[in-house]
Amino acid sequence: MGLIAAGWIIVLLLGGGIALERTLTRQVEANFDEQLEYQLTAMVASAEIDSFGEVWFYRTLGDQRFLEPNSGLYWQISGEGYEPYPSRSLWDRTLDLRQGDASSGHFDSEVHFYDSDQFEGEPLRIAERTVILPGSETRWTFAVASATEERDFQIAQVRSILIWSFAVLGLGLLVMALLQIRYGLWPLRRVRAAIQKLRTSGDNRITEPLPAEVEPLVEEINMLLEHTERQAEEARTHAGNLAHALKTPLTVLTNAATARDPKLSEAVFRETRTMQRHVEHHLARARAAGRRAVGQARTNVRQSAEAVRRAVERLYPDGRLDIAGSRDAMVAIERQDLDEILGNLIENAAKYGGGSVFVTVDHELGSPLCRIWIEDDGPGIPEEERIRIFDRGARLDTGKPGTGLGLAIVRDVAEIYGGSISLGTSEDLGGLLVDLRLPRA
After folding, report:
1. Which of 24, 292, 351, 368 minimizes the number of CB atoms within 10 Å of its CB?
2. Taking the CB of residue 262, how many other CB atoms lie within 10 A of it?
3. CA–CA gap between residue 191 and residue 222 (Å, rounded)
């Protein structure tokens, strides 16, 4: 920010300084030329033709420098057939005018200016004009010349003042910009100090009052800390639940091995399957929680349901699975997790139903949550069992293979993403109705 500010200050001041220097320089030059033109006009107004046909002044020119030799201010009158009539300040020199003695036939009644270096070490600025005086047919060239030393000194003075003033102005602006940047970023230093204090003091929130400009940043930091704390608490809870769930099977196996139980192999098989169910359940929750923390996901429900249907139809070729509803419904959940949720629900409907499964995507278009219905024509689930069926390992039909973790995993993953699931009775098919609600993307 400081470099950008310095760059802009230099560019703007440099451009402004050059423009102002050219304007003032032109003004000094214009004033200089205006003085020459004034003196030239005074010469023409004071000139007359004498009885010999030559020019003379009926009144003395006002500037005393015309009378001082080599004073730097000169005049001269030239005409065809006449010797140049110089001022006393020229002494033994004459001006080499562009119009010369007017023998070229050129007539320039307007004043024109030009620079000349005909005198060594004394550059001149010359103003000249061609006139015809009353009583004469001769074209007379009137010229006033002045050394440019004074003009050049004034221009140098103007440039010096501009350089120093713009340098001081630029330095002042740069200092002010740096102070403004430091003052403007000062709240961020306070935020850094607050975060450092947060890390060293053991607090879990930034509570000290900070400027309004950084309050949104502080709120986001506090929300991030809360999110991280909640994730850590979930991880601790999962680890504790898994340890508690594995404790009992391990105790059973240890006791059976210590007592040399003849049915040890059966106990190992039974308890290891229990431990496997617990591990799969907690791994599914951990994967969902980890993917949710990565960022906001967007998944098309219809595409996920179609992919699940193709897989289920290969497992149950005799069944019928229909999908209806919105094709554009998007939910804020990872595709892999949505596939796992729909896969468990649709597979359960095909496994335990009577052969017909009907899926409705986005059943209520105006609902804040995307509702997905999975219906089957099976026996359904009694109302008193609809809560218990979500417990880990709970199964109503033990005659078919399974671990009893499908609905538990579905409920946990849906809740991780802010959704929910409930069970009811299908009015169209007569079997189970699963009402899945997921947040829209």
Report:
1. 368
2. 8
3. 12
**How many residues does this entry show for the chain?**
441
411 touches 434 (CB < 8 A): no
How many Å apart are CA 372 and CA 364, to the nearest integer? 9
189, with CB counted inside 10 A (0-12, 13-18, 19+), is: exposed
Q: Please state, for a pLDDT cut of 70, what percent of the chain lies above it.
A: 89
Q: Is 90 in contact with 73 (CB distance < 8 Å)?
A: no
| Non-local CB neighbours of 175 within 8 Å, separated by 6+ positions | none
| Higher local confidence (pLDDT), 374 or 441 | 374
Helices (H), 67-148: none
Positive or negative torsion for Cα 330, 336, 340, 346: positive
DSSP string of 270-323, one letter each residue: HHHHHHHHHHHHHHHHHHHHHHHHH----EEHHHHHHHHHHHHHHH-TTSEEEE
Query: What pTM value is reported for the model?
Result: 0.48
Name the DSSP class of 136.
-
Q: Which of 306, 344, 340 is nearest to 325 (CA)?
A: 306
